[in-house]
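Technical annex, item 7. During the second reporting period the consortium partners agreed on a shared format for inverse folding records so that results from different sites could be compared directly. Each record opens with the tokenized structure and is followed by the designed sequence. A conforming record, contributed by the partner at site C, is shown below for reference.
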């Protein structure tokens, strides 16, 4: 296996824009569960409770330094999707390699909805989503030369 990325915590100052110092100190860097795991589990740094059809944004406090030519896809943990119909609101989160240098330090935030018919509770310290690194390719006439500054929807703002 080729190593193409490294996880870090965002700075305390960045995290405090959406959370508390206690939550920041509870951040666990993503990790794979087994030697054959394709996904890296993202862990909650506070309890998560979602009623049916309720939505929230989870500020993970995580950023990923990714080699150019690769991306990080974010998905719900399979068990939570299967048992509770937990869904990412953008279906799959795509973290580009240049997001690491964004104004928000590449802070990965995950907007999720409980699409099921029963309340969902995930305890602090448990995994709630997973990230998978993937190689991508470009067209022969690609001429993208813009700079990233923000997160959601920022690349179409000029």
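Designed sequence (site C submission):
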């Amino acid at each position: 296996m080729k190593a193409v990325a490294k996880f870090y915590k965002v700075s305390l100052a960045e995290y405090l824009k959406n959370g508390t110092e206690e939550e920041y100190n509870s951040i666990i860097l993503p990790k794979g569960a087994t030697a054959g795991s394709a996904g890296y589990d993202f862990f909650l740094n506070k309890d998560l409770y979602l009623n049916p059809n309720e939505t929230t944004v989870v500020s993970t406090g995580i950023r990923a330094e990714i080699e150019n030519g690769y991306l990080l896809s974010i998905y719900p943990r399979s068990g939570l999707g299967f048992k509770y119909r937990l869904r990412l609101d953008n279906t799959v989160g795509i973290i580009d390699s240049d997001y690491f240098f964004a104004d928000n330090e590449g802070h990965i935030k995950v907007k999720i909805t409980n699409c099921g018919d029963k309340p969902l509770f995930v305890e602090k310290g448990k995994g709630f989503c997973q990230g998978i690194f993937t190689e991508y390719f470009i067209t022969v006439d690609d001429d993208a030369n813009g700079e990233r500054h923000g997160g959601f929807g920022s690349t179409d703002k000029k």
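The chain has one domain: 5-137. DSSP finds three helices and eleven strands in the chain. All partners now use this format for quarterly exchanges.
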